[in-house]
């Protein structure tokens, strides 16, 4: 492994404007992520924020995860497993990826179930459609609780 990878590089510290330019995020969004503890900045002698280059990768991860519907709390929980004051290694990212993958797989399964059952009965208990008498006779799905019971995974034998 190249020892120079662990040494600071020229221009390792980036001003917030450069980070915004590199990520496509607004300066205010970057400040927000910092206030939420998702990224860290240091202040130079003039009081201006300076970010290490690896923050660009963290911000990219945040953008992707938010695009997939994860909350900032979910994202922070994952990022908290990475080193906070140094660039994460490939192994660090792989470990985090494995943990995040479980949640992504669960979301995929839920989306597939929604896709496959949305055109039929969702077990909402509406009984307003002629078909509901067939798919949810006597509002049997209600025994499982309120809401779209079948989409939440509940099943019972109609027979």
Let me know the average pLDDT.
82
Which CATH top level class of the largest domain fits?
Answer: Mainly Alpha
Number of helices: 6
Low-confidence stretches: 1-5
CATH architectural designation of the largest domain: Orthogonal Bundle
Which term fits the overall shape? elongated
Order of strands in the sheet with the most strands?
1-3-2
Strand content: 5-15%
The major β-sheet equals: 3 strands, antiparallel
Q: How many independent structural domains?
A: 2
CATH topology category name of the largest domain: Multidrug-efflux Transporter Regulator, Chain: A, Domain 2
End-to-end CA span: 65 Å
Backbone CA Rg: 24 Å
Structural class given helices, strands, pairing? mainly alpha
Helix coverage percent: 40-55%
- Written as H for each helix and E for each strand, in order along the chain, the element string is EHHEEHHHH
Number of strands: 3
List keywords for this structure.
single chain; 159 residues; mainly alpha; 2 domains; three-stranded antiparallel β-sheet; elongated; disordered N terminus
């Amino acid at each position: 492994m190249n020892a120079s990878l662990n040494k600071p590089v020229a221009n390792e510290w980036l001003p917030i404007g450069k980070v915004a330019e590199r990520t496509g995020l607004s300066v205010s969004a970057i400040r927000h992520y910092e206030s939420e503890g998702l990224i860290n900045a240091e202040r130079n002698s003039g009081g201006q924020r300076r970010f290490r280059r690896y923050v660009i990768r963290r911000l990219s991860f945040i953008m992707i995860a938010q695009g997939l519907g994860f909350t900032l709390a979910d994202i922070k929980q994952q990022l908290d497993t990475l080193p906070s004051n140094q660039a994460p290694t490939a192994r660090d990212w792989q470990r985090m990826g494995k943990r995040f993958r479980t949640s992504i797989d669960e979301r995929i399964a839920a989306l597939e179930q929604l896709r496959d059952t949305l055109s039929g009965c969702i077990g909402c208990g509406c009984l307003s459609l002629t078909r509901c008498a067939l798919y949810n006779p006597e509002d049997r799905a209600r025994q499982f609780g309120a809401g779209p019971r079948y989409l939440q995974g509940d099943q019972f034998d109609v027979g």
